[in-house]
Amino acid sequence: MELMIVIVLISMMLFISVPKFQDALLNDNTKKSCRFIIGKIQTLKEASMREQSEYILRIGVTDGSLIATKISSDDSTASSSIPQNTYKLPGNVKIIDVEYPDGKKISQGEAEIKFYPKGYSNKAIIHLKGEDDQQISFFIEPFLSTVRLVQSYKSFEN
Questions:
Q1: Architecture label for domain 2-150
Q2: CA separation (Å) from 143 to 28, 72, 111, 124?
Q3: Confidence (pLDDT) at 4
């Protein structure tokens, strides 16, 4: 009887803890990519203010790469990108396009978002297509350090 109670208690504990444990073990590529994009944008805004330098986030829409580079202030040229500032999206996560407020959408090639020493950035929306065709929009606001994430395809028009 006591053994049965112990087995039931252990089963209940495993039933509650295993789903959380499973989420910790199995990395979702979409969530991982979202965390990187949000973190990198916030880091670039803070670094541009702290170091009083311009930064550019180059988004390779076609190849799914994100490269952060620092613009040197003396000759206005981009310094070489640091390996920690380069990220390649996993194969099942794609960048759909990058949209700007003037209606311009870049769906092939490379898009750029600048971060200025005063703490602001270009306004843009990055549209991402994750696993299971899930669409995500990242709203980058010029004067806010946070990035707003919407779990659907949203544009400036709607």
A1: 3-Layer(bab) Sandwich (3.55)
A2: 30, 22, 20, 12
A3: 86
